[in-house]
Amino acid sequence: MSIRILAIESSCDETSAAVCVDGQILSNFIAGQKVHEQYGGVVPELASRAHMQHIVPVVDAALKKAGVSISEINAIGYTQSPGLIGSLLVGGQFAKSLALSQKIPLIAVHHMQAHVLANLIDSPKPSFPFLCLTVSGGHTQIVQCESPLSMKVIGETIDDAAGEAFDKSAKLLGLPYPGGPLIDQYAQKGDGNRFKFPKPSIEGLDFSFSGLKTSILYFLQQAGKSVTYKQSNQTSIAEQEKFIADNLPDICASIQQRIISILLDKLEKAVHQTGIQSICLAGGVSANKGLRKEFLALAEKNGWQASIPAFEYCTDNAGMIAITAYYKYKEKQWSELATPSTARANW
Ligand code: KG4
Ligand code: ZN
Fold first, then answer.
1. Predicted confidence band of residue 201 (pLDDT cuts 50, 70, 90)
2. Domain 125-308, CATH among 3.90.1150.10, 3.30.420.40, 1.10.10.10, 3.40.50.2300
């Protein structure tokens, strides 16, 4: 008998629904929220309201595109955690109501586990065990995966996430939120070796990005002049703006280059430490063209097996929630419908 899953993702500012039949994603709709752009970041209250507006049409579209009716669905998967509590509650309560009305199981999914398992959506699938570099707006982790439902974090950021490093750098450059994709775009036309930003010296497999942000701030305050930071050496705002406007592609490429080298150096270290030579990329930042290219080049140089999800499964999407719910369904890992709480800010 087929396993048909409807999944819902609403952890941050994307409302998404997907249908998965026997491990194949038949539809994956994502509604973004432009409303946050003017605030330079996600406003939780506005995100919850936008989820309320989007959830019915998005779920409806996902079912229609897949050609599956709600009565044919075997289980509802949804993101339980981590995320913005108001946003999670909208998706969670909607999923629970659907499961109750259809008398089918409800499957709670961990958002970060789902990012990792996005690598199992398309073929060829990575072989187990594999190491996954998961890079998103809220997390930066190296995850060791033994099987779809058995994984552990072996390295993570001690401060900012890689996506935050992109977004905060972009903000310093006067670019709108979220700035990660824009840095990626400008970087393609720039020289990543032109400006040198310092590399953090963090022991083991952990990451740090807060120092990079500070060094970019000082660099811009000096308008690229290589002098030691002193308040009195600061250039005027007009000079800084002109410097940014004249050098934007090279600045973006240099920032991106540093973020990529911090990430891939640790991944390489993790491969040597664990002896696992199958590597995957996941999370919103894995949409970055420079990172994808260098990740694949690193694997090729060393003869490692490499996997990256298709673009639509990198940033937040319900397809990854559906594939995770599919594996959990096969193991009968579903929730009690009587459970009062469907959302947790942290897990
Ligand atoms: O995984 P995701 O969609 O949401 C979270 O779970 O956080 O990741 C969002 C992050 C944002 O910081 C965004 O700027 C970054 O992913 N991002 C990118 C690119 N596309 C999205 N960063 C760099 N280059 C990109 N092309
Ligand atoms: Zn995410």
1. confident
2. 3.30.420.40
